[in-house]
Amino acid sequence: MARSLAKIYRMGEVEVHALRGVDVDLYRGELAVLLGPSGSGKSTLLNILGGLDVPTTGSVTYQGRELSACDQDELTLYRRAHVGFVFQFYNLIPSLTALENTALVTEIADNPLAPEEALELVGLSERRDHFPSQMSGGEQQRVAIARAVAKRPDVLLCDEPTGALDITTGIRVLEVLERINRELGTTTAVITHNATIASMADRVIHLHDGRIARVDVNTAKRPARELEW
Amino acid sequence: MRALDRKLLRDLWRMKGQAAAIAAVMACGVAVYVMALTTLDSLTSARAAYYERYRFADLFAHVKRAPMALVPRVRAIPGIQWVQPRVTATVPLDLPGLSEPAAARLVGVPEHRPPDVNGLVLRAGGYLEPGRPGQVIISESFAQAHSIGPGNSVTAVLNGRKRRLDVVGVALSPEFIFQVREGEFVPDNKRYGVFWVGQTELAAAFDLTGSFNDLAITLAPGASAPEVMRRLDSLLAPHGGVGATDRDDQLSHKILSDEMRNLGAMAFVTPAIFLAVAAFMVNVVLNRLIATQREQIAVLKAFGYSRAQVVLHYLEMVLVIVVLGVALGCVAGGWLGGHLTQLYKQFYRFPSVDYRMDPGIAGAALVIAAAAAVLGMLMALKRAMDLPPAEAMRPEPPASYEPTLVERLGLGRSLSQALRMVLREIERRPLRAAISTLGTSLAVAVFVLGTCGADTIAYVMDTLFEQSQRHEITLFFVEPVADSALYDIKSIAGVVDCEPVRVVSARFRNGHHRRLAAVQGLSERRFWHRLIDQEGREIDLPPEGIVLSAALGRALGVEAGDTVEVELLHGRRTTARVPVRGLAEDLMGLQAYMRIEALNRLMREGSLISGAYVAVDPAAAGPVYEKLKNSPRVASVAAKSIAVKNFDDIMAENMRIMRFFNILFASIIAVGVVYNMAQITLAERKRELATMRVLGLTRAETSFVLLGEVWALAVAAVPFGLILGHWFSKVLIESMSTETLRFPFVLARATYAQAVAVVLLASLASGLLVRRGIDKLDLVAVLKAPE
After folding, report:
1. Minimum-distance CB partner of A107 among B416, B424, B688
2. pLDDT number for residue B200
3. Which of A16, A104, A157 would best serve as a mutation to test chain B binding (most B beta carbons within 10 A)?
């Protein structure tokens, strides 16, 4: 739950208002899409929700806990225990195999899936011993998802997860996200500038120029497999 | 300023920590180089000027007694320029408030004018006044140690008679630049001095009126020293000549020369290590820089900059670091050289030493350091040169990894992911890991190398003073005496026991090999004065035959079982072929050992002794000294405990200074290498490390991946460093050995431990310095950009 979030960056002499008072809630088990053009503040919002960044003003509460008052170490523990991240450029550790990239997270989690199980979930069991350099972009992104969900996070935050992928692989990745959200009930937030993706969401939050333009509740969710762009 | 120069300066500023680390390592090497060579240069020119101006003798010859009438015949030997006949003797001193034995080297000089050879540099007062007996000129170091000068007096025991001498002058002589009692290692200016006394008076005191017992000779330019020595020996033999020697055997000259030679060695061994490390660091840093600037290089080339211009750009960048390092090293080296010269002046007495910094030495340092750096960057430069503009515009291909050897062997099951990352990173760049390991191992080696000299000296001193000489007093008589004197010594209250010693100078011959050496005759029972070899084993002395120092054996080309011709230069001067029973790797150089009875038989003399090794009750040592020094037949009394104390005092001071520099040098290398490696690792793996932080790994867990690698390499460097250090030390100690002086090679276990501790601590600290980079990782920015 975020209230009156504002984030101001200083870029040299210039102040950039990335967020100008945003109120947003994520509901348990939902799949929300944050939609907006580049520069609309959606990444900033995701970073703050994920405990990577703190707002200049305003508050973020997670299960009654005030995140905006946390220091770096507390934020680390928050990320470690509750948040799963999926990035546009996968960010796998190149020196670790698919299985080991997953294990990197399960080793420090309280009640994780087995790394093999997580890879099974994204359909990559047969690629478990491959290094990132031996996998395609889509496979790498699915490993990244496996790594993110293996710890059974409360929230899965995805920053342009298909941004670097072609449509076919992008759809596969979205199917995986859909399946995770459905089968594990993980609250999932996907940010994208691709409006098509919004139709698979429970809720679509439109961001524009650092403000929430409108929130649509999607009554007719479409399966990821039917998406096209 | 050209745009490219601006880029150069800004790039350098961005990597200032790494540049500073390289410059610091270079500066250390240059500082040692400059310090050693400028000091050596200053000493060399000071000594040359001193020797030249005050006519330091080229040859020395000692005889028992020769008439002055022989001098013109000596002068007539072709090649001889100046001859100074004189009487010399070492006598006990009677100093108020000093119960321990003190001695003076008495040197006879003409009363009416300073000596032609080994001239005196008067520092205070004046020269002797003719017709005024009882005057003395004393050496400056002795005068300073006792705070005395002209107007004071000293009492010496001349041939058993106490004699008061009035100090008229204080002087220096090129013959006694290093003033130390024969058989000791460090000067004791309180208990040993050089006194110049009127020749006539000194001769009279030792019943040598109209005679001399010592010659100091200078040679004409181009004269053949061996030929002159040969003719001199045959002329002096009937008068008890013990063989002419040249400067190489003159105590002061020899010690100074050895010290200068060691300075010369120091100028190359240590700097070479530092410059090698600097070259490695340049290699790693530049490789990294050129990898990250691929696109910039491509743009430059695309815009028409030539390959040479690009190469020159990076060359200039490194040369800026080199110039910084060399400038810093020259300043530090000059400062250290000035101090070292001051330190030398305390031990080596020159009229003046002007410390000077020869610009040629600084220039050479610059050239050598630049060459090392360029050598280090050759590979990186080639990469920059060969990079085609189009390919360079594309990012570097992603890194590919493999399971490590450990894992392929099936041992990897229990490894944590972080540990896997560390191991795979090391295996992926074996060359860099090797360079890093080698660099750190050189830090360990530098420490070991810096300490090995002290370890060797400590070992030699322990062997000499604890294992070998267990007696307190070494006593020599003016003339050999009957061995019944031992009973007289034993009867002195406070004397526990004593053992005899007979010392005879001898010339050894085997074929065309000849050497002068002393034969020591020792008793069968050697409890107080034992013969010990370098390994600490007692040397066996058979009833007949002779045992030679291994060094003497090598010089003569003889081995155990051979015979050697021995010409004894005292008494009847008998010559005999003596069977060599063994060679002993002893600590003292050119020596020969026999049973005292066998030596006396060879001499065809009765049971005579030259002196005695006396064990005393420590509580009664004072009265024993007093009794011995007033005994007319006693020429010299040396106390071990005082020699040991003097030595320990000087060593303790030197050790402190040396330890400081060893720790400093080892730390600079270790910090330089580890800091640079960690910095580069951080730069290269920023993205991974940030990802780990985002995934919820703590700073400590993330740091493990960064520092695990550098620390693992530092730990891996330890055994190599110990081996390298061991090896370097061995080379250094061997390079310091001469024909007459061979040092055992000793490294204390504590040295290894200290080296490891210093280097690991420095690595730890520099790793932690870089670790702060993890706290500053911009998590958000790093995740945005593609690889």
Report:
1. B416
2. 92
3. A104
Q: How many angstroms away from the CA of B2 is the closest CA of chain A?
A: 26
- The Cα–Cα gap between B631 and B475 comes to 11
Q: Say yes or no for a CB contact (<8 Å) between A83 and B696.
A: yes
Mutate to test the interface with A, among B691, B693, B702, B782 (most CBs of A within 10 A): B691
In contact, B108 and B175? CB cutoff 8 Å: no
CB-based contact, A164 to chain B, within 8 Å: yes
Residues in chain A, total:
229
What is the structure's pLDDT at A188?
Answer: 93
Asked if A18 has any chain B CB less than 8 Å from its own CB, the reply is no
Q: For residue A18, what are the contacts with CB-CB under 8 A and spacing of at least 6?
A: A7, A8, A9, A41, A44, A210
Tokens 């990244």 correspond to what residue? A144
Our CA-based measurement puts residue B681 at a distance from the nearest CA of chain A, in whole angstroms, of 14
Q: Do B699 and A76 touch (CB under 8 A)?
A: yes
Distance of CA B202 to the CA centre of its chain: 38
Q: Å from A161 to nearest chain B CA?
A: 12
Rg of chain A over CA atoms, in angstroms? 17
pLDDT tens for residues A43-101? 888 888 888 888 888 888 888 888 888 888 888 888 888 889 888 888 888 888 899 88
Contact B180, B347 (CB under 8 A): no
**Using CA of residue B686, residue B692, residue B694, residue B699, what is the dihedral sign?**
negative
Please name the residue that has the structure tokens 């929230």.
A155
Q: Which residues of chain B have pLDDT under 70?
A: 1, 390-399, 410-413, 738-742, 782, 784-787
Q: Which residues of A111-139 are buried (b: 16+ CB within 10 A; e: fewer)?
A: ebbebeebbebbebeebbebbbeebebbb
- Residue in chain A nearest B415 by alpha carbon: A100
B671 phi, psi to nearest 5 deg: -65, -45
Q: How far apart are CA B727 and CA B731, in angstroms?
A: 6
**Residue A133 near chain B (CB below 8 Å):** yes
What fold does the segment set A2-226 form as a domain? Rossmann fold (3.40.50)
Residue A8 touches chain B, beta carbons under 8 Å: no
For the stretch A175-220, pLDDT in tens is 988 988 988 888 999 999 888 888 899 999 999 988 888 999 988 8
A-to-B residue pairs, Cβ atoms closer than 8 angstroms: 98
CB contact under 8 A, B688 and A43: no
Q: Which residue has the tokens 């920023």?
A: B686
The full DSSP string for B726-767 is HHHHHHHHHHH--SS--------HHHHHHHHHHHHHHHHHHH
Q: Are the beta carbons of B401 and A95 separated by less than 8 Å?
A: yes
Secondary structure (3-state) at A163: coil
Overall residue count recorded for chain B in this entry = 787
CB B541 within 8 A of CB B484: no
Q: Between residues 670 and 729 of chain B, which touch chain A (CB distance below 8 Å)? A: 687-688, 691-699, 701
A103 close to B (CB below 8 A): yes
Nearest to A179 by CA among A101, A99, A118, A122: A122
Kind and range of the H or E run holding B193: strand B192-198
What's chain B's average pLDDT? 88
Domain boundaries of chain A, sorted by first residue = 2-226
Q: Which residues of A touch B779 (CB under 8 A)?
A: 52-53
C-alpha B315/C-alpha B297 separation (Å) is: 14
Which residues in chain A are closer than 8 Å to B418, comparing Cβ atoms? 104
pLDDT in tens, B98-115: 777 888 999 999 998 899
Interface confidence (ipTM) of the complex: 0.84
Tell me the C-alpha distance between A195 and A206, whole Å. 10
